[in-house]
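Researcher: If convenient, please comment on what follows.
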Amino acid sequence: RKGWFVLWGAASTILLGELIYLAVGLTERSLASWLPSGSIAGFFYAGTIVSVPLSLVVLPLTTMLFPRMVKAFGQDRMAGLAMLRKQVLLLFGVSFAVVIIVTFFAESIVELVFMRGKFSLDHVLFTASILSITIWALPFMSLGRVFRNSCYALSDYRTPMVGLTVQWLVLAGLGAVLVPLVGVQGLAIASVAGEVVTTLTMGSRLANSLRST
């Protein structure tokens, strides 16, 4: 198992993982299609606010540190593990602080960002109620990206794929139950639950892998 097999074997695994990632997004939108148009808009408005700290803090930081993580794990697993712990503590702390701020000021944030034209105060209150749920996905999305990069640094492409598969199953199963019962809040809960499960799955598999070496 050398040469082209290693290259295309890894590439195929990553491709399959990307397909599952797309399936997660499509499933979320499919579940959203059961909702009234105003609920769909509120859900994706809230998701836009969640993506701001993710794009401004988490993605740049984890991308910048990824080459150092690869080097650390390549030279010494303990050094890589120490770097992983620092990133986890830093990102979880920052993300949790953002969660607390957004939870308490959700209405003010939505009003400041979106209350224009036909976006009324009722829309603000409705979107803020969704945002107060979806923002809790941020710490797990942050940790999930760190765990995914750690797996890639260890040439482990299967663990992220397993995590995405579990996320897809939880989102589809829980969403199919909650959306008809409680509407858009049910979809928000299912989305957060999917992020929690995929992060815990990748974290536990990564921990087992590091213990065994």
About this structure: Residues 23 and 173 are 14 Å apart (CA to CA). The first helix runs from residue 4 to 32. The chain is about 90% helix and 0% strand.
